[in-house]
Design brief:
six-stranded mixed beta sheet; three-stranded antiparallel beta sheet; alpha/beta; FAD/NAD(P)-binding domain; disordered N terminus; FAD/NAD-bd_sf
């Protein structure tokens, strides 16, 4: 399956960010949200091979909504064609553009010890987008797609202890102690794939 066809296999939903009863095992556990964590969860949920797998995303901070300010945020990312196409395929690029993105059409790269430089030019070469806007678009995607319940997002939750299988027993699963700030006790879950 190509990277550009993920939207055909959308199978995610959102199970809130309050206290949740965790499953004893998840196929994939992602520690950390941000663009990488939410992006991986969205693409995995949309993929043919991972779309039906149970996915747990642990985000240590609380849920915060993107607020468009008059001035751009300092934390931005340059998105190339591949990233934009991935965002289009899962259906969030329009959301990003409806707020704001800035195309980059030309870039010069030079060094300080000579007059030599390289010029890259294309319309557009990339897009500059605020990090929080990308995160908001991915989070909205995961929360609003109700085709299945394979993605669980827990906010204000941390992985307290990670136990990898020993080399003597590689068949054992990774064990993760999960602590939700709103609960007193930790829960231990297992996974085949841990992404930190």
């Amino acid at each position: 399956m190509t990277f550009l066809n993920y939207h055909k296999f959308l199978t995610t939903s959102f199970r809130g960010y309050s206290v949740k009863k965790l499953l004893p095992k998840y196929d994939v556990i992602i520690v950390g949200g941000g663009m990488v964590g939410f992006g991986l969860a969205a693409v995995a949920a949309a993929s043919k091979s991972l779309g039906k797998k149970s996915i747990l995303l642990l985000e240590s901070s609380g849920k915060k909504k993107y607020q468009r300010k008059e001035e751009y945020e300092n934390r931005v990312v340059a998105l190339n064609d591949l990233s934009v196409n991935m965002l289009k395929d899962i259906g969030v690029w329009e959301f990003i553009q409806s707020f704001r993105s800035q195309p980059v059409n030309k870039m010069k790269v030079w060094e300080t010890k000579s007059n030599l430089y390289l010029t890259f030019q294309r319309n557009p070469l990339a897009y500059i987008v605020e990090n929080d806007l990308v995160i908001e678009s991915l989070r909205n995607y995961l929360e609003s797609n109700n085709n299945s319940s394979n993605v669980t997002i827990l906010y204000e939750t941390q992985a307290e202890n990670i136990q990898l299988p020993s080399s003597d027993h590689p068949e054992h699963l990774v064990r993760v102690d999960v602590q939700q700030r709103t609960q007193d006790k930790r829960e231990t879950v297992e996974t085949d794939l841990l992404v930190c």
